[in-house]
Amino acid sequence: MIDIKQFRFDGKSKFRISKVDPGSTGKFKSKQEAEERLEKNILTMRDLQEKLYADATYSILIIIQAMDTAGKDGAIKHVMSGLNPQGTEVHSFKQPSAEELNHDYLWRAHKSLPQRGQFGIFNRSYYEDVLVVRVHDLLGKQKLPAELITGDVWERRFRQINQFERYLNDNGTIVIKIFLHISKEEQKKRLLARIEDKAKNWKFSEADLIEREYWEQYQACYEEGVRKTGTDVAPWYVVPADKKWFARLIVSEIIVRRLEALKLKFPTLDKEQLKSLEKCKKSLMRK
Ligand code: AMP
Ligand code: MG
Predict the structure, then answer these.
(1) Considering only CA atoms, which residue is closest to atom 4 of ligand 1?
(2) 127 ligand 1 Cβ < 6 A
(3) Ligand 1: which of 128, 136, 217 to mutate, judged by most atoms within 8 Å of the beta carbon?
(4) Is residue 286 pLDDT above 90, yes or no?
(5) CA–CA distance, 83 with 85 (Å, rounded to integer)
(6) Is residue 101 within 6 Å of ligand 1 at its C-beta?
(7) Over 90: is that where the pLDDT of 38 sits?
(8) Which residues of 169-181 are buried (b: 16+ CB within 10 A; e: fewer)?
(9) pLDDT, tens digit (0-9, with 9 covering 90-100), for 184-201
């Protein structure tokens, strides 16, 4: 059994980003061992997805946040590879469009939420509005009335996010939040690989180098974000991500455990419905 509690932050203990070792691989000694378990989890997720779909009451929202190169796309590609595309939607949140900036910051997220019975994956999310917006002081671009841009604006956003996530939870949306945590050293390696490996050149963006300059500011915002928005209904999972195989395994483990806790079952028919089914069967047999 993998202990995923060690990665979970729900506001009960004080989260310190420096206490999480991005290079950790837990008890796993080999990539192969982890990959076997990941394969198993992928199959389990597929079974659970079918029940989720049939039950059609809960929806699953998976939020993935991380620094550049931390492996968000890879985690989505590998961990979700077993899911039925018909029941899954991925949304990548980029710099907001003009239309998006003409609304409150939760609007585009709310519009993209998964339907009942479905998975929604957010590659970045409204958390960017307390991360990049904070680090680069972009509030001025968000078209807020000037009197609302006050010193407590971040505190208010944390509160709004907590209320939003509680609201989602109260309405059947299970919120799973994952922060893939890499080290600055590992990011350097991955950026260099994107320059040196021709097949990876397309992934390289000079903008990532600029963001890297703000590493410490981002870490501070992540730390505060996890502290203030890790709650019992929507805890954060801070996943060591220097080893991609370990991060993917842990992400799959978190999702499987959360889905299992829902104790999903295929809907059963009542007496009337069974009777009607029998009638249909007889009618089919006659023709
Ligand atoms: P990528 O994930 O590499 O495609 O990059 C998307 C970019 O959009 C990142 O640099 C994010 O920081 C940026 N982004 C996402 N949401 C926001 C936002 N609300 N305000 C400003 N920039 C954002
Ligand atoms: Mg990028």
Answers:
(1) 94
(2) no
(3) 128
(4) yes
(5) 6
(6) no
(7) yes
(8) beeebbbbbbbbb
(9) 999 999 999 999 999 999
Strand ranges inside 36-130, DSSP E? 59-66, 88-92, 119-123
Are the C-beta atoms of residues 280 and 66 closer than 8 Å to each other?
no
Q: How far is the CA of 92 from the centre of ligand 1 (A)?
A: 9
* Angle at alpha carbon of residue 260, lines to 88 and 106, rounded to 5°: 45
Tokens 């957010």 belong to 122
- Write down the mean pLDDT value for the chain: 97
HSE, side-chain direction, 13 A CA sphere, residue 13: 10
Minimal-distance CA residue to ligand 1 atom 6: 94
Which atom of ligand 1 is nearest the CA belonging to 72?
A: 2
The model's pLDDT over 103-115, given as tens digits with 9 standing for 90+, comes to: 999 999 999 999 9
132 in ligand 1 pocket by Cβ < 6 Å?
yes
Residue nearest to atom 15 of ligand 1 (CA): 94
> What's the maximum distance between 2 C-alpha atoms anywhere in the chain?
76
Is the shortest distance between the CB of 124 and ligand 1 below 6 Å? yes
Residue 124: exposure state from Cβ atoms within 10 A (0-12, 13-18, ≥19): middle
Q: For position 287, what pLDDT does the model report?
A: 83
Nearest protein CA to atom 1 of ligand 1, as residue: 94
Judged on CB neighbours under 10 Å (0-12, 13-18, 19+), 249 is: buried
